[in-house]
């Protein structure tokens, strides 16, 4: 499946909050919340397959991944020492487009991806135009010295000023510069997700 380009609020209504997909807020409760509040569903147990599928979809739409791309990350995480689910989230959180989003330089991950694709982002002084670039501790994220680019980033920084910056990142807003201090801890991941269900979903397919 390719990257999703359809109505974003539709996915929020279905899956719940997806801060990386859009900053819009649904006016009505999500389907998941409706089921939780409806007494008819109190005794109804959702099929386990559906639970796993929904968690996988949340991960895909939040980080803006295609099906093959997510499967690739699952395989890398499975070969890496440590909990597969935790490693998977760390791999996704350390993507360049996500780092830019978490720094507040873009309001959404698709917006951050566009900045990278349009060659506005530098990592350690070198131009990087690959959104999936895996950032490492001590990497320095900066922007090209272009008025239009910095105006866009300044607007995003202003709108995200109320959000708390994750502990693994440092932002120097006046210099349009961010620094990756360390690998993100599981508790600081920006999405509420049951990652083990995602791992189970793919383990039952292979």
UniProtKB/TrEMBL annotation:
Keyword Nucleotide-binding included in the entry's annotation: no
GO MF assignments: rRNA binding; structural constituent of ribosome
Pfam family, one: Ribosomal_S4
Statement: the UniProt record of this protein carries the keyword Lyase: no
Record domain Small ribosomal subunit protein uS4 N-terminal: where: 3-93
Family annotation (SUPFAM superfamilies): Alpha-L RNA-binding motif
Gene3D superfamilies: Ribosomal Protein S4 Delta 41, Chain A, domain 1, RNA-binding S4 domain
UniProt xrefs under InterPro entries: Ribosomal_uS4 (IPR022801), Ribosomal_uS4_bac-type (IPR005709), Ribosomal_uS4_CS (IPR018079), Ribosomal_uS4_N (IPR001912), S4_RNA-bd (IPR002942), S4_RNA-bd_sf (IPR036986)
Localisation per UniProt entry: Plastid, Chloroplast
Domain of life: Eukaryota
Single GO biological process annotation from the record: translation
SMART domains tied to this protein: Ribosomal_S4, S4
Boundaries of every RNA-binding S4 domain copy: 94-158
Function: One of the primary rRNA binding proteins, it binds directly to 16S rRNA where it nucleates assembly of the body of the 30S subunit.
UniProt record similarity statement: Belongs to the universal ribosomal protein uS4 family.
Name used for this protein in its record: Small ribosomal subunit protein uS4c
Gene: rps4
